[in-house]
């Protein structure tokens, strides 16, 4: 428990920044009209592409015995990849709606 409190004390600015980012993100996304959600998702796909590359880069520079950070890095790569693939599937499906039918 003492390690957790020490971590929070050392990184309180980062915790505030993440919490504020979450609240601002929810407010911004909540006020976007439904018509604009697909372009917004394309931007999120690009951001998650950067997350994937960053997580892989961080994982390559970790000690091999730091299992917690390796698991978190793996989860970041996995969830970012799922989001990117899902976004491309939804975008492809949306583009199929605009093709002329025979």
Task: Sum this structure up briefly.
The protein is built from four helices and no strands. By secondary structure, the protein is mainly alpha-helical.
Commentary on this structure:
The mean pLDDT is 82. Helix content is 81%, strand content 0%. The radius of gyration is 18 Å and the shape is flat. The relative contact order is 0.09. The protein is built from four helices and no strands. By secondary structure, it is mainly alpha-helical. The protein folds into two domains: 1-31; 34-102. The N and C termini lie far apart (65 Å).
Give average pLDDT, whole number. Answer: 82
Based on Cα principal axes, name the global outline: flat
Helix run count: 4
Radius of gyration: 18 Å
How many strands?
0
Overall structural class, as computed from helix and strand content, comes to mainly alpha
**Spans where pLDDT lies below 50 across 5 or more residues:** none
Order of helices and strands: HHHH
Specify the biggest β-sheet.
none
How far the N terminus sits from the C terminus, by CA atoms, comes to 65 Å
Give the count of structural domains: 2
Chain-wise SSE layout:
Blueprint: H1 2-10, H2 12-30, H3 37-60, H4 67-97
Helix pairs in contact: 3-4
Supply database-style keywords:
flat, 102 residues, 4 helices, mainly alpha, 2 domains
